[in-house]
Structures are given as C-alpha cells and as structure tokens.
C-alpha cells in the first residue's frame, strides 16, 4: 500500500510539473486540456476522460479528451444537451453513476452511446470560476465500479487547474474577456477537427492517429496546435510535411 501511494504521489508531482510547464505565455489551451485529460486517466485509474466547455451562448461543447477515438468523441458529443456533464454544470456539484445501464432512463441518449462504446460508469466534476461553472471534467470507466473519494477530490483539483489554465490567470478581468477566450478555444477545436479530417483522408489514418500527427508536429516545431491546424485546414501548410515528420509526444 505504501509503494502504491508513493507511486501515485510521484505521478501526481510529475503531472503538476508537466501542466506548469505548459502554462506559458500564449499557451495552447486545447493541447493543455488534452494533456490534462490524459493525466487524469493515469492518475485516477479510469478508462477515459474528457472536458466540455460552455460556448457562452447557452450551449456546451466537447473541448478535449484523453483519446481522439471516434467512439469516445461520440460519447462526449452525446451529452451536450443531456447527460452527467450537463447535470454537473447546471448544479455545480459532482454527478456520478456506477451503473449506466440502470440509469438509462436518466440519460437515455448518453447511456446508449456510452454503453455501446464499452463504458459502464461515469463521474463528472465541475470546472469553476468563483461561483460560475464554465465546464466539466468527465471520467469514464469500463467497469461498474465507483471512483473513490480521494480520486474524486483529485479530479476536482485537476478540473480547477484546467479552469485556471483556460483563463490564463485572467480571473480579475471582465467577464466579457473570459467569455471571448472560451469562444476562441472552442473555435480552435472546430479547426482542429477540420485538419484531422484532411490528414486522415490524405494519410489513410484513423482520426486519433491524425490528431497524434498534428499534435506531435506542433510540439516538435514549437508551434501552437491550433495554428498548425488552421494552416492545414486553409491549405497554407502542406499536410504531407506533417505526415512525413516524426512525432514525439510525451
């Protein structure tokens, strides 16, 4: 038990260092959120994780996940109107289910999509800015087991880090500035989807593989992923250059 605790503490320390290294001037919010989701999976021993954000127009959209697999993206897309994440952002408290099949009547569309993708349990924690919730970090398990209290608390801590990262220490600014930044972040996510499509079609790749190529190229060249995606989507940057470049994502 001591060894497991020590290992987890080491992984947690490494996570905070990685996230802190990412929080530089003009950092890539979407790359940061993807890193956060990936580390949440590792630290909390869950099967998958993802972040949804408010579009500040009354809607909610997926921003990042621990994987770009089509079925996982579908799970997060399915709960942009109803689901545990929606209940979480509306109430501002953690929402969980250890048996999605039994909760089918509660979230019919989400449960159908999540169960089809192999998931059996879910836990969503809010991303808060003062008293306002701007999004949620959702954790998924393939087994019908609860996420223990310490892990939920750690998940909440990671969600809080995500909120700070998104706002880039602009909490003191006017809400209009905050809302504008969230809008830009979600627009960048749309552009990344377009670039993934270009790379996937040209390279005969799965969407997750295309995302890995895009992200790896951006990191290897010290560029923001959203900027590279924009260039690829607009035809300014040759996608063959990305496909032939080695990717080193850590």
Automatic annotation (TrEMBL):
UniProt domain ANTAR: residue ranges: 172-233
Pfam family, one: ANTAR
Coiled-coil region: none
Keywords, comma-separated and alphabetical: Kinase, Transcription, Transcription regulation, Transferase
InterPro entries, per database record: ANTAR (IPR005561), CheY-like_superfamily (IPR011006), GAF (IPR003018), GAF-like_dom_sf (IPR029016), GAF_ANTAR (IPR012074), WH-like_DNA-bd_sf (IPR036388)
Record carries keyword Kinase: yes
Protein name per Swiss-Prot or TrEMBL: GAF and ANTAR domain-containing protein
């Amino acid at each position: 038990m001591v060894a497991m605790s020590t290992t987890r503490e080491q992984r947690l320390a490494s996570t905070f260092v990685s996230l802190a290294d990412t929080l530089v001037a003009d950092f890539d919010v979407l790359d940061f959120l993807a890193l956060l989701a990936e580390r949440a999976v590792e630290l909390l021993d869950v099967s998958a994780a993802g972040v949804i954000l408010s579009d500040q127009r009354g809607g909610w959209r997926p921003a990042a996940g621990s994987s770009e697999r089509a079925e996982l993206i579908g799970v997060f897309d399915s709960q942009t109107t109803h689901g545990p994440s929606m209940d979480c952002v509306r109430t501002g408290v953690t929402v969980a289910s250890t048996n999605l099949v039994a909760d089918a009547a509660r979230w019919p569309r989400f449960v159908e999509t999540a169960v089809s993708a192999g998931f059996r349990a879910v836990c969503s924690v809010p991303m808060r800015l003062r008293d306002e919730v701007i999004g949620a970090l959702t954790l998924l398990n393939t087994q019908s087991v609860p996420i223990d209290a310490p892990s939920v608390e750690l998940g909440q801590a990671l969600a809080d880090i995500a909120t700070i990262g998104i706002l880039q220490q602009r909490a003191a600014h006017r809400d209009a500035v905050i809302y504008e930044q969230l809008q830009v972040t979600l627009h960048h996510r749309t552009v990344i989807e377009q670039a993934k499509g270009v790379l996937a079609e040209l390279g005969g790749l799965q969407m997750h593989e295309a995302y890995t190529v895009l992200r790896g190229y951006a990191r290897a060249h010290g560029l923001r992923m959203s900027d590279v995606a924009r260039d690829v989507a607009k035809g300014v940057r040759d996608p063959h250059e990305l496909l032939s470049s080695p990717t080193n994502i850590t």
